[in-house]
Design brief:
Layout: H1 12-25, H2 29-33, H3 42-45, E1 48-56, E2 60-63, H4 66-93, H5 95-107, H6 116-155, H7 162-166, E3 169-183, E4 188-201, E5 214-220, H8 221-225
Length: 226
């Protein structure tokens, strides 16, 4: 739920929104890259004439999960490698049958087999599906980790290496900001911007690292509420 209304650009959140629209209107991609992971809806981005912050939601805190995400990458990689090793062992044990099956499936992806080949084929398909799933889980874990690293890198005021970040502790701060934009036709439209900031303590320094609010999501108010 969005909270009390604020004077337009006096707050930190308002300054971020103001900088975002100024950079958007001037096509300043370098500035946008440093403050947001998303752009304003293309169909209306060039139509905005004015904007104002109307509401700022209560600050939410979530635990910093970079260490957990990094561990998930390690775990899913091990699971993927294990599935690949199991398939290699299976293939070596059934080399003649698997070569015949693989040759047949190159000609026809829906090929069927009989007798012993049918049993080996069923096991081959099971290994294939399990390997694909393991690879998909590993890729998704890597994607989540890289996304989190990108967000941390944008929010923190000072550069930090991956190892230092993974050993840092703290919270992720989240706010929803209501913004009313006026389009060229004079119509006003409400949006909700999701802002994020990291409050982290480095293992080598007993202090919270400087950070700034960045934009992670922009939605029309009705869609955001849904």
């Amino acid at each position: 739920m969005l909270g009390l209304a604020l004077a337009a650009c006096g707050s930190q959140e308002g300054q971020v929104i103001n900088s975002f629209f100024i950079a958007t209107k001037s096509n300043d991609n370098a500035s946008l890259t440093g403050m947001t992971r998303v752009g304003f809806p293309k169909e209306e981005g060039g139509q905005v004439t004015t904007w104002k912050v109307t509401q700022v939601g209560d600050e939410r805190r979530e635990p910093f999960k970079l260490q957990e995400l990094a561990q998930d990458v390690e775990d899913t990689k091990k699971a993927r490698d294990k599935k690949n090793e199991e398939f290699i062992a299976f293939r070596d044990e059934n080399i003649d049958a698997t070569v015949t099956i693989e040759d047949g499936m190159k000609k026809d992806a829906n090929a069927t087999f009989k007798g012993k080949l049918a049993d080996v084929h069923a096991a081959w398909l099971k290994h294939r599906d399990e390997r694909r799933e393991a690879e998909s889980q590993f890729n998704e874990a890597e994607r989540r980790l890289e996304e989190e690293l990108a967000l941390v890198g944008m929010s923190l005021m000072g550069a930090s290496d991956k190892e230092t970040l993974q050993s840092s502790a703290g919270d992720v701060l989240i706010k929803e900001v209501g913004v009313s934009v006026t389009l060229k036709d004079g119509k006003e439209k409400p949006y909700v911007f999701t802002l994020l900031r990291y409050a982290l303590t480095s293992p080598t320094a007993n202090r919270i690292a400087q950070s700034r609010w960045i934009i992670t999501e922009i939605k029309p108010k009705d869609a955001a509420a849904t």
